Amino acid sequence: MKIQYLGHSSFKLTESTGTSVVTDPYAPEVGYTMPRVTADAVTISHHHFDHDYIKAVGGAPRIIDKEDSYDLPGVEINAVKSFHDNVRGKKRGENVIFKFRMDGIDICHLGDLGEACSAELLELILPVDVLLIPVGGNYTIDAETAKEYVDRLMPEVVIPMHYRSKDCKIDIEKVNGFLDLFDEEQVHETDSDEIELSRSDLTGETRVIVLRRA
Fold first, then answer.
1. Pairing mode, if any, of strands 194-196 and 2-7?
2. What's the pLDDT at 89?
3. Which of 131, 161, 137, 138 is nearest to 51 (CA)?
4. pTM exceeds cut of 0.85
5. What are the structural domains, with CATH classification, of the chain?
6. What does DSSP say about strands 69-72 and 75-83: parallel, antiparallel, or unpaired?
7. DSSP label at residue 186
8. Contact status, residue 53 vs residue 45, Cβ threshold 8 Å
9. Please, are residues 2 and 194 in contact by the beta-carbon 8 Å criterion?
10. How far, in Å, CA of 131 to CA of 150, rounded?
11. 154, 125 in Cβ contact below 8 A?
């Protein structure tokens, strides 16, 4: 399977036979323009402008934005309700976490998760091989809380998202604070916007991969 980072909280996930899903497409108000892509489905964690700009995705995709289970050719999707804040949604509402199973790999996209790490939520989303996690704080969990999620979920691959990068206009922190919480040998900053993974790439050790925005 392939994971391409489109920027902010948006990724294109592609299963080996070609089925593809785009997560949380964003509007230009983020500060930069999302690449034009096509997909079979689009998942929306919540309906804010930086997560639900559906018209950026071509191909007449299926829109998935609610808690439920879904099947696409070669892809299983489970959507779990969570909260965009730490007061059970009273401040920013609900957030949907998406679990994808592609090519025998469990990928979890946490969306704009804002709640503290709890045993109840962990039970709903485990197991996780690849974790796509917000780290910028302010509107989501911050770097320290994100690190707690990593420590308790124990994914093999962690890809940070929803952090301040070049041209970003949203008041969130840079990725550095999150990376500093890991040992240097665990962090891999790449010049690519994409990685390809198979079960044989999962070694049992957690590594953080920072992808360049497409």
1. antiparallel
2. 66
3. 161
4. yes
5. 2-210 (3.60.15.10)
6. antiparallel
7. G
8. no
9. yes
10. 8
11. no
DSSP, residue by residue, 86-126: SSTTTTT-EEEEEEEEETTEEEEE-TT--SPP-HHHHHHH-
Q: Is the pLDDT at 85 greater than 80, yes or no?
A: no
Phi, psi of 97 (to 5 degrees): -90, 135
How far from the centroid of its chain's Cα atoms is residue 176's Cα?
Answer: 18
The beta strands (E) that lie in 8-144 are given as 10-14, 20-23, 37-38, 41-43, 57-58, 62-64, 69-72, 75-83, 94-102, 105-109, 130-134
Residue 165 three-state SS: coil
pLDDT (tens digit per residue) in 136-169:
998 999 999 999 999 999 999 999 999 999 899 9
Measure the CA–CA gap between 71 and 73, rounded to whole angstroms. Answer: 7
Peptide bond into 134 cis (omega under 30): no
CB of 97 closer than 8 Å to CB of 117: no
Q: What is the pLDDT of residue 88?
A: 76
Q: What is the mean pLDDT of residues 59-64?
A: 96
Residue 54: pLDDT band (50, 70, 90) is very high
